[in-house]
Specification:
Layout lengths: L2 H12 L23 H5 L1 E3 L12 E3 L6 E10 L3 H9 L11 E6 L6 E10 L2 E11 L7 E9 L2 E11 L2 E11 L8 H30 L2
Helix pairs in contact: 3-4
Protein name: Coenzyme Q-binding protein COQ10 START domain-containing protein
InterPro entries: COQ10_START, ORF3, START-like_dom_sf
Pfam families: Polyketide_cyc
Length: about 220
């Protein structure tokens, strides 16, 4: 505070009728900084901080939400709808006909849960993922559906439509979050996956016929 300001304050205090200090200069610090907004608090995470940085320069924005893709394929199968449904319900047999699924293990104490592993070479690299899936309440001879609980985020459904007394149509829909490692080829991933699923259903059509023979022995 300057000597003139101190004199003015003292003079005002010494006069009983003086009730305002509006004429006294207000001291402002150039070191004060604005506080971060709620947007900065909730949408930024710490990634380092230094004494020379401002309040917000030690933060970076969260990465964007990963893209989801949906794939749907269907095929006609020359077995009764009940046989196709029972065959597809045998989750541990799926690696025998789905080209990119390497193992499926149903948990003994919780049969609605199963552990899946995927191994396939594509886009110039070996791709491996795993997840824990929960089978939701099925509709016999109509629908099987699931969603992942951990690991690779995915969900899907298999629907069965009668075509005749000895044939049916099987429709498979799979939705998945594009893994970060495959984000650069996301535009090519969806048609590629649909091709794999389509070939899997073709193999399933053959597998279901042998499954029918085994089940009738």
């Amino acid at each position: 505070m300057s000597a003139a300001s101190a004199t003015a304050v003292g003079a005002c205090i010494s006069r009983p009728n003086c009730t305002s200090l509006s004429h006294v200069p207000i001291w402002r610090s150039s070191s004060l900084r604005p506080q971060p907004s709620l947007t900065d608090i909730f949408f930024k995470i710490p990634c380092g901080f230094s004494k020379r940085s401002s309040v917000l320069t030690g933060f970076r924005r969260l990465s964007p939400v990963m893209q989801w893709q949906d794939c749907t394929v269907k095929t006609e199968i020359d077995v009764p709808i009940s046989v196709a449904y029972n065959c597809y319900s045998d989750r541990e047999a799926i690696p025998q006909w789905m080209p990119f699924i390497s193992t499926v293990k149903v948990l003994e104490d919780k049969p609605d849960l199963s552990r899946w592993s995927l191994k396939y070479r594509a886009f110039g690299r070996d791709i491996e993922f795993s997840w824990l899936a929960r089978n939701m309440q099925p509709i016999p001879n109509q629908k099987i559906h699931w969603r992942s609980m951990e690991g690779l985020p995915n969900r899907g459904a298999v629907r069965f439509y009668p075509k005749g007394p000895a044939s049916c149509i099987v429709e498979l829909t799979v939705s998945y979050e594009v893994p970060a490692i495959l984000a650069p080829v996301a535009s090519a991933l969806q048609p590629f996956t649909e091709g794999l699923l389509g070939r899997g259903l073709e193999r399933f059509a053959t597998f279901a016929k042998s499954y029918k023979s085994d089940s009738t022995v």
